[in-house]
Amino acid sequence: MEERIGQCIYCGQNIQVRVPEGSTKEEINREAVRLCNCYEAQCQQAIETNINVTEKYIESEFQEENVVRNLLLAAVEPVGRGYIDKIVLHEGRNKYTMSRTSKKTIKVEKNTTIKKVKES
Q: Is residue 15 part of a domain?
């Protein structure tokens, strides 16, 4: 690890950061954004946190459903960054929905349909 000076890409503030040796300028600046206190950097930090939390949730809750888990994990970043509004997966009796809420958090739902019919 080495001490370098990175620049926040949003406000231009120079910030001293610790990065692995040989890091590119882009990696150094990304670390500076992660540490900056400007509004735009804080919004970016919140998005990153939401994405990380959602990924961990999906990995723990959908361990048995490999295909669904992999598809949801692939969609976390596009949904979290607002590139995709909503994704819906249907698998058997299960319906999985991932969307971005108005509060900019990521919501993951699993609905299982059980239908009982009795004729006499």
A: yes
